[in-house]
Amino acid sequence: MHVIVDFTVVPIGVGVSLSKYVAACEEVLGESGLSHTLHANGTGVEGEWDEVFAAVRACHERVHAMGAPRISTVIKVGTRTDRDQSMGDKVQSVRDAGG
User: Fold this and answer.
1) Could you point out which of 8, 11, 64, 84 has its C-alpha 20 to 30 Å from the C-alpha of 27?
2) Are 52 and 40 contacting, i.e. CB atoms less than 8 angstroms apart?
3) Does domain 2-96 fall into CATH 3.30.70.930?
């Protein structure tokens, strides 16, 4: 099943700056080959369900390996069965509507 996920990984116990952990997750997503987009408060990623959630798990594993003792992650998940839709399609739909 195709899924679009928006997620935010928040390492806990590592200080205030989280940039290096976000960069590590971006690297994981790049290695996965999944389509993804970083934004100010998280990352959008799309692909097959198992591949996307394997990548989220790999982000957790990488951040823990970097020394984060605890991680809190917020995940929003969207699926459709009526038609194929990408993250880009969703954004373009809003732009076409005048947004």
Assistant:
1) 84
2) no
3) yes
- Nearest CA-CA partner of 77 in 54, 53, 55, 93: 53
Q: Determine contact, residues 52/5, Cβ cutoff 8 Å.
A: yes
Burial, 7: exposed, middle or buried (Cβ in 10 Å; 0-12, 13-18, 19+)? buried
pTM of the model: 0.90
Residues of the chain with pLDDT under 50: none
Amino acid sitting at position 25: C
CB of 8 within 8 A of CB of 41?
Answer: yes
Give kind and range of the element (H or E) at residue 36: strand 35-39
